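Spend some time on this chain, tokens included, and walk me through the fold:

. . .
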Amino acid sequence: MQWNILFFFNSVLLGVGLAMDAFSVSLANGLNEPHMSRRRMLGIAGVFAAFQALMPMTGWVCVHTIVQYFRAFEKLIPWIALALLGFIGGKMLIEGIRGGGDDDAAPGLGLGALLVQGVATSIDALSVGFTIAEYDRLMALVCSLIIAAVTLCICLGGLVLGRKFGMRLAGRAQILGGAILIFIGLEIFISSML
């Protein structure tokens, strides 16, 4: 592969495709925390972007080193995403139902939950390491950084939208956010199995 406009265009398209799950989770996070600060939004989007950069590079390294082990792990990816997003979404649903209409007490997203979301939404990006296997190390790194930049922008958009609608939806926002996370987990699982 050469450095040309097609390389950059393909990297941006990969970023858009990979960021869709992170966008949906960002939307749910914004719904769950409608008074989120801009700094916090940038931090959350940054975590998703970092995972979206790390996973393709990890996949690329696997292709160039331990391919046979990664292929066995690849079958577990939909199960892991379903379990992680189902757990977090279920927890949000339960808290939303128990909390009733107490909008001001909506808990913020903790670091542990954010890291789990980052892994769950980017684990399918490991497979991108196979598609960029023909790239040299520098091209793979640049591709991963482009994916991260696209993800950062898309997730910020999701957080802004979620925050805006979260203020309007008040007490139902956490329930809706949890349902979205569960739906995303199911979507990843079902589309991977078909």
User: Anything to note?
Assistant: DSSP finds eight helices and no strands in the chain.
